[in-house]
Structures are given as structure tokens and as C-alpha cells.
Amino acid sequence: MNPAFKDLVIRFKIELERHLAVRLPLIELDGYLQIESSELTKKIFLYPNERRSRFQGPEEGIHIDEDILAQKFDLIVQRIVAKWKNNRRIYARKTIVARIDKKVSQQFLVEHHLQTPLPGKYRYGLYEQGELVSIAVFSGGRRMSDKNDEYRSFELLRFCNKSGYNVIGGLSKLIKAFAKDFSPGDIMTYTDRDWNQHSSLEKIGFTIKDITAPITFWVAGAHRYTYRNEEELSVLMDQAPLGFPKENMGSIKMILYIK
After folding, report:
1. Where are the domains of the chain?
2. Tens-of-pLDDT digits for all 259 residues of the chain?
3. Domain 88-184 is in which class?
4. What distances in angstroms separate CA 258 from CA 151, 184, 186, 209, 235, one per listed residue?
5. Distance between CA atoms of residues 164 and 75, nearest Å
6. pTM of the entire structure?
7. CA gap 78, 212 in Å, rounded
8. Do 112 and 140 contact (CB within 8 A), yes or no?
């Protein structure tokens, strides 16, 4: 296990302890590290760059790779802290919903979402006293071969709250506003199994349709490139010979049918 990874995880542990005011034991396992405490409802598993797969180890918990932790350190700290110690709770009924433009959406995602920001086609935000505290980004509609001509399926591409905020009922309010404007037949989305192995979206009416297979990446610097076969991998290895392979845990495909 490389020393830089251990130093990074120790710094991460110290930062979590500072925010949560708890002691968090750090345990070294078979090629990866684990943070756990009775104060946390989930264990946190951290994997060095040299470890490709997580699937020999435990599945339940939060799974973080070294390259992501290094790039998104502050955002990851904020997201974990928000799960157990929300800086501010806001009720969606006290917010105002509005369409937002691509520039505003992209900047919000860069600042508060761990994944690559996507522009989507339709973007909605919740404002509390003039401050943007939550957004949802939707795709355009798709016709479905087994549905009538008017039926459209949309994808919820991105959703996030402002870091440190918990907007109670926020996603439901954003979806309701979108559905009022575009009358979707259904809205589908994917939840990241690196963070949640059981989706909370079921509480607001989504149903699980599929568990997608893990995605394999070639990691080079700050970029993660997907590949589907050995030929594509060979090209990536030629283009970025200092890169290394990684796998995530896949996603949960969810669908909300709109009445």
C-alpha cells in the first residue's frame, strides 16, 4: 500500500473527526483501509490506486478510491459530514422552485456534486430566500416502443443539494414542477452503488428496475475513461501509459411512473 495513500486517508480521517467531533478508528485490511465508528451508520472503505477491484471485500458502506479522494477531498468530506451532521435543514415547502439556466446549473454541480456535471435539457432549482439550495437536471423525452405515441420517458441526470444542506422533500418538489411542465410518462435515474447499495428513492415512489454491472475505467491523472473491450483498453494504454484500471460497484436503475 503506497505511503501517499495512507497519508491522504489519515488527513481525511482527521478532517472528519474535526467536523463530527468523534474518534474514528482506521483499520488496515487486505489491501485497503476502513474507517468505522458507532457514530456512523455506514463504514467507509478506501482503496489505493493499485487496487483495481473492490469485490473481494465487503459491499455495504461507502466506497472511495484514492484518485477520487485526492481530486474531490473537500466535497467528499462535506457529503459525509452532511449525512450525520447537517449544517442546516430546510423544508422544501419553504422554498421557491424555478427553471435555471445551464451556466448556473453547471457551476452548482461543479461546487456540490461529486460526478461530472451534465448540462441536460431541462434544469430546475429550489431557492430559499434567494439562495440556490438544490437542483435537478433532466434529459429530453424519449419515445418508448411499447407505449403510445404521447408517452415520453425522461432521465433525472443529476440531483444535489448545496453542500452542508439537507432540503427535506426537495427532490419531490423538483420532480413535481418538472412533471407539471412536461407530463412525463416516467422518470428514470441511476443511483451510485459506491455510496448507496439501497436507494432511498423508493421512499418517494421510484422502483428498482435493474442493478447495472460495475463500470471499468482507465484512470489517467484527473480523468477516468471507460472502455468496453480489450481493443479500447489498448488504445487508452497507448494514449496514457501511466494510467491504471479501476472498477466501481455499478448503479441501481430506478423508475418513477407518473400518474
Report:
1. 3-84, 88-184
2. 789 999 999 999 999 999 988 999 999 988 899 998 877 778 999 999 987 766 555 678 899 999 999 999 999 998 888 878 766 889 999 999 999 999 999 999 999 998 889 999 999 999 999 999 999 999 999 999 888 989 999 999 999 999 888 899 999 999 999 999 999 999 999 999 999 887 789 999 999 999 998 888 999 988 889 888 899 999 999 999 989 989 888 899 999 999 7
3. alpha beta
4. 11, 7, 5, 15, 43
5. 10
6. 0.85
7. 27
8. no
